[in-house]
Amino acid sequence: MAEQDEKQQQEPLEEDLTEYFRVVIDRGQEPLRIDKFLVNRLENTSRTKVQSAADAGCIRVNGQIVKSNYKVRPGDDVQLILPVREDNYSLEPEDIPLDIVFEDEHLLVVNKPAGMVVHPGVGNFSGTLINALMFHLGKDNLPGDDDFRPGLVHRIDKNTSGLLVVAKSETAMQHLARQFFEHTVYRRYQALVWGELEEETGTITGNIARHARFRKLFDVYDDPAIGKHAVTHYRLLENLGYVALVECRLETGRTHQIRVHMQHIGHPIFNDDTYGGDRIVQGTIFTRYRQFIDNCFQIIPRHALHAISLGFVHPVSGEDLLFHAPLPDDFAGVLEKWRTYAAQLK
Fold first, then answer.
1. What is the pTM of this model?
2. Catalytic (active site) residue 157
3. Among 29-33, 262-266, 288-292, 330-334, whose mean pLDDT is lowest?
């Protein structure tokens, strides 16, 4: 038996749907092609998928990228990056309109509306982005196993709007998975948060794990042994009285990362009903102000978070691509309402 140091993801991340496998080859290992070795060691992984990972530079031995014909030797430190295989649900095409920002034969970029779930799961078996993509591309034209064709290397929450890239080939999926894993993808979010920010820029660092009591929520932990390392950089765009518009840059992609991190520093996202943003956090006690906030909540009946920019290297051409999705009407509407309110405070 080889001595293992495996670090596979136990839960898919909100943003980065990649997993990491590591193994140190034991002393008795005979020379063997690395693609054969990995297929023998990993469940539900085909040789084709491993070879595609090698072609995309997703297999390293002793820190160096290797091809699929590399022969493993005793003592080799083997690392593999693969797109996550989520739970297998019955996926059916559905004629759902898509806002496609870019598309070619290898990938497409979608501007996802708030309210749309990315992938079918418990309680959401239809009406998802994947159902829509299967209709748009044809049921069998997304990469993956015979019964599992998501094309996803990242995702965003149901009530977060904005940009997602979807792979249309196994090669594209592997290349994109590597970029997300290595944090080379350019991602910017805009969020309306409670409270004015005193600093123009800041960085939030704190491990994220499931909440100790409320298992559907996530929390920040100082103990490095708990949760996954998470880093969010933010920049103040506008202070608007009792709220602020900020830009967030993800260094890592953890479930609910921006929402949890902003709550952690006392600035929950406006109308985030999961992390305390759906109540008055800053402001006055007057009835007129409460009515103003209720009107704002009606304008944007979800958390005010939008994936506004997405950039990456094209997996085939090598071209640098950068896409921008303007704020949706609900976000733009509540932002304008707060600008008007803030002007009256001066």
1. 0.77
2. yes
3. 29-33
